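Internal tracking record. Fields below are filled automatically when a chain is submitted to the structure queue. Please do not edit lines marked as system-generated. If the sequence contains nonstandard residues, flag them in the REMARKS field before resubmitting.
Queue: standard
Priority: normal
Entity type: single polypeptide chain
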Amino acid sequence: MISAHVGTAEGTGSDATGPDVSGLVGRERERELVASFLTGLPAGGGVLQLSGAPGTGKSALLRLAAAEAARQGIRVLSAAWAPGEEDVTYAALHGLLRPALTRVDDLPDRERALVRAAFTGSTVPGPAELAVAVLRLLATLSEPVLLCVDDLERLDAASREALLALAGLCGSTPTGSGPGAGSRSRSGPVGMIVAERTGGDSPSYPHGAAVTLGPLPDAHAGSLVARAGRVTGYGEEQLVLAVARGNPLALTELSLGGGPLGDAAGFGMLPATPRLAEAYAFDWATLSAPAREVLLTAALSASPRTRDILRASGILFGGDDTARAGLSELVARGLVVEAVDEEVEGPRVLFREPLMRPAVLRLASAARRMAVHAALGRSLGSPAHAAWHTAQCVAGPDEELAERLDRLADGSRSITEVLVALAALEGSARLSPDPERRAVRLLRAAELAGDHGLVDQALRLVRQIDPTELGTFGRALLLRVHDLLPGSSAAGRERIVELCEAARAVAAQDPVLPRKLLLAAARRCRWQQVGPWERDLVLRTAEELRAGPRDGWYLVVLSLIDPLRVPRPPVPQPVPRPAEVEGRSLFSQVTTLTVDFELAEPLLKEVEGAFRTAGRYGQLPLMLVPRTMCQIWLGTQWDTALALAEESRMIAERTGQQDWAARATGMLAIVAALREEHDRASESAAEVEESSLRLGQSRQLSLAVLARALTASGTGRYAEAYVRLRSLFADPTTPYAFEQFWGLAFLAEAALPAGELADARTVVDHVAALTQAGCSPLLERIVAYAEAVLAPDGEAEERYRRVLRPGIEVWPLLHGMSQFGYGAWLRRRRRVTESRTPLSAAESVFRALGAPSRAEQAASELRATGWAAEEQPAEDDVDDFSRLLSPQQLTIARLAARGLSNRAIGEQLRLSPRTVASHLYQIFPKLGVSSRAQLAARFGSAD
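SYSTEM-GENERATED OUTPUT FOLLOWS
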């Protein structure tokens, strides 16, 4: 359809990203150029050229320009390509000018005759002289005019030439009616926005500006995918982003869908929708039959080599000359290029626009695709690639072909190559004559889909399996796959026994599957409330199947069950090389679980990058949650930890991993509590508590306990904090993990103001005894810190010096806590000058981390040393008190005057109730009072 409009925002076009121009995502620079162009149009017209690949949003931007122009009172005339009119002379120009043709009688005789001849006469005028007449016609209108022309390269040739000539006149000096014109008149302001496809010989415009619409940036691309609402999970979203490469139309149209992957998966692409295919329909329709056949062959071929494509096309044509001619036509049209790569033998056929490949498959008939597959299956030299094409033509079972197809699923993969592997495995399953082999292949595909975060695909594949057809290996693999799927964590403790039995049963068949089963069993031991029998069962089974005591997977199992039993240092043997991603992943997990964060952090970051590159999004939470843990202790600012916690929760939720989502939420709660975002910490802790009960993973409650305890201590409720932290150590028979190790530092910190020194010492002594045989450097310092905080006065200084020895700066949080504890201890010993350095250091560390209350506590202790007293003159009565009382006594007196109990005062000032009582015993006679009521009266008169 060719349409025109006057003074409205309606437009036309074929590559728009949606009907609502107000929802255009991104394109800020392009929109600014359009706005600037429209602002200057009334002063002199001009041309704005919009170019880009199909689907980049040229039509959407053109509609936006038309709507804005109409709002500004500019007359808007629009035209675009319509099927069937490309051979009708001046068809597009007629549609563009239709609203203005009522003014044709106002033109001079020559121009009037030219216009009428173009649209109704037998004599067709030339484009140049017609353009002058058209410009005079537009000048008869009473307002500025904007011409919006879409799909310029598709318009009929006469209209295209006339519009190019007209573009040369827009914004020019006064134009006459042609050679020999007897009079000259100046045209009114006429502007033109032309949208056309990138490539070929694009015209230049003497009075115009040009902008090429490229891919959208990642942030805008993600927003567009989310707005389209076609994808169902994180893995699918990342696939769409990778395939679309920032193309707006592809971002809104592509998805995996709910069925088999189809032909496009054979070359790592998603299937095209009718709307995406329509963007390339003109190219397809205007090719010769040989060129279409070669284009379809190149689109389907798993091999890009020119010789393979020509050989297959030659089979279809019965000769190579026709195939070569078809390829030459494609190259001449700019649809493909022949590239030479020194690393690949012979030239390759590459699509200039990769999205054309799936579009061509949509445009071609199923019969033609089948014929091309058959030809490619006969001509390709790679057995695996040939098997893929042959398999598309085979209906019955064929085990030999299925085995060849299996090989296509092997090896490392990029983000999009997982589609090739999944399609190959599903295809080989379809060809399997043996029911168990069919089921095993589907399970391998489901496991791969889960690993890449494609939850819906994994579920679809598992639903095709009949468990009654499975043998021992199939049942073991089914256990493994079920452990990856949503809802599997709710299985009870009996699943641990099943996993161990399955690992033993298949150990002789497959060395990898037993390790995965035992790791799954160990994680259940870690997070579910199990007893020593289950833990011993997993360890015994792992010991039977390990190759040595430092096997990487075995160390992970051991660290999940009892981190303190892992040999020091916690390094697998042999040490996995950087290229060994699975080994490096296991290494990172061991070092995280043993609290060796200095070793873990670089490993986790390295493996995370490898997983992202390979598109293994289902594995990302296993790296991001531990990275959050590391950043809590290693980070100099907690912004990084917060961002990691938020991302890990989002990915875990969108990849169906509810257990990892709960752990990420627990980390988020802890970080929020440390940052003193107490409402957020409480909300996240409540989510963890609910998830823990729903998932049957009671030990995740310890994350909520830590968050709530930190919230309590952060608001001065040390007694409550101590009770919560003490609950982490209630069962000494359960092996301690990082929650207890972290909690030890905060428990010791809360013990003094909570009046629980003696009880806290028993806990610390127990942990110290457990770690005597060896532990991580951080855990060693945490124990040393706890011992220093709780030590008698005669031992405290030596213990603080031990914890503050060089190297503690690696852990800023522990460094700040230790400096504060030491400074406060020095000040209580009246070593005021010495206390200022550690207190000042603590304040600086806490402010950098983002812990304002802790920083303010350090600042308050600093003020109590008199650091700022000289700079802050007090009022007369308060000044009298300050001469009688020490800074700390003055603070205690004020709090007591407000009615706070000794315990409440101690919680605020991190003192024991007995110490507060001792201070008040000294304060009363100094102020001449004998009761709290009299103390309140004294301070009331001062206020």
